[in-house]
Design brief:
flat, about 550 residues, 3 domains, MetI-like fold, 16 helices, six-stranded antiparallel beta sheet
Amino acid sequence: MNSWFKSGTPWVWLSAGAVAVSLVMVVGLLLMIAVNGLGHFWPGAVVEFDYEAPGEESRRVIGEVNRSETMTAAAMRDAGFEVPEEQLVVNRHLIKRGNRDVTGRDFVWYLEDFMRDWRYPDDVLVLERTTWGDFYGYLRAYKQDSEIVAKGAEARQAFEARLRESLELVREVARIERFDIGSVNYQIEQIRLQRRGLDRNPDFGDEERAAREAELDAQRDELQAQYRDLQVRRNELRSDVRRYGIVMETMEGDERTIPMSDIVRAWWPNEMGLGSQLVHAAGSFWDFVSGFPREANTEGGILPAIFGTVLMVIIMSVVVTPFGVMAAIYLREYARQGPLVRTIRISVNNLAGVPSIVFGVFGLGFFVYFIGGGIDRMFYPEALPAPTYGGPAIIWASLTLALLTLPVVIVSTEEGLARIPSTIRHGSLALGATKAETLWRIVVPLAAPAMMTGLILAVARAAGEVAPLMLVGVVKLAPSLPMDGNFPYLHLDRAFMHLGFHIYDVGFQSPNVEAGRPLVYATALILVLLIIILNVTAISIRNHLREKYRSESD
């Protein structure tokens, strides 16, 4: 036994077992996120049943079974449910019945003991709406100009024929409001700031000032004319799409008119086959990753959060890589090794352990208030007191995360430089190369894979950080993307949305917890996939560099 321990075999097996357990835990976590996240897009079957609770009239309930659980009868009695005294456990089901504008609650618990006659009618219709969440019911009639023009099967045919055209009109209205009108408003605001700056500038003469004011007024009048034309076009499209609607019967038996302009998607889940379900899930997933959020982030898509996360990571990588590499090269190749350099290395290592929220506080005080406020006072006085760069912005968030991840890049680059044999340096110097030529043509290319390793670790950490971003740039809902068609196209002074903060907001700040629960998993899945894509890209570049310089050295 002693010889077995001394051989090191048990430690090898112990290490292999720890790695295996870690892999199982990681794969299990990813599978849990994937199952719960992708399940958000799958069209679930809609059940209809009669609920006959003691002391209450029998009523019809329509909805999807969100989840089920077994509870003790005592706990259910404490919650206000009537349970027979002899019963010890109770099965209950959380039903997503939608229709929040009708009933006030779209998720309700029902006891299985009082649920009678479960059935899955083929003609039940589910509507995803722009407001008030999903609607469950039966299509009874199709309206045009407030008049019923079709009922029954004909109503369904007319509704399906009109739905695609209505969705196109709704998307056109959204495009005009979000991009066209937004662009005109941005240009009008820039003219207003130029006019205000002109009034504050004493260097202009009266004639020059009058000519410049006339030019700005002409530009503003032209933009206002464009704005009025866009408003007319938008109102025409809205009037066209609002001419149509459908009459839905709710589970209470009442009839409600749903305007076509409020419908995002419609489907009959109980008559869908596997192919139709896959098509529906793919379409819902695409709308999720390419759409804008609605209903306090509990509905709609997460495109602004994806865009903001990717752009922030790219800017952070562009900033942290050269600074981290240059610092590591100086510490390893040029600085005289001694107590001062050792102190700097210890400080860099300790900096990696500082809580991220501390970096956020530093970024808020130094980047936002000091640098950003100084930029506003020097270059944008006409906009004050409203901040331009003196408020939370994607540039300050990127710089804050660059500081946060800088120690990782420095340490990884230093380790890569230390692994290069001194014989390579000596051989290069012996052939007549200078120290700088040896460094930049021989040493740095060979250390490039280590630099990429540092960048990979930096990207993985930065993409998931939330705490510092809450102070320096991230917001719950950004009205516009940091990049658009207005000069200078990339607006680093704008606040942005982030996937990590979106998860926090939906999971802990949402007014509708049950509706936001699947979105937490779906957004987490997108964040994990995004980090994997970024890391795989960096790993591919690192492997390419490693093979390139290995073949050249051979």
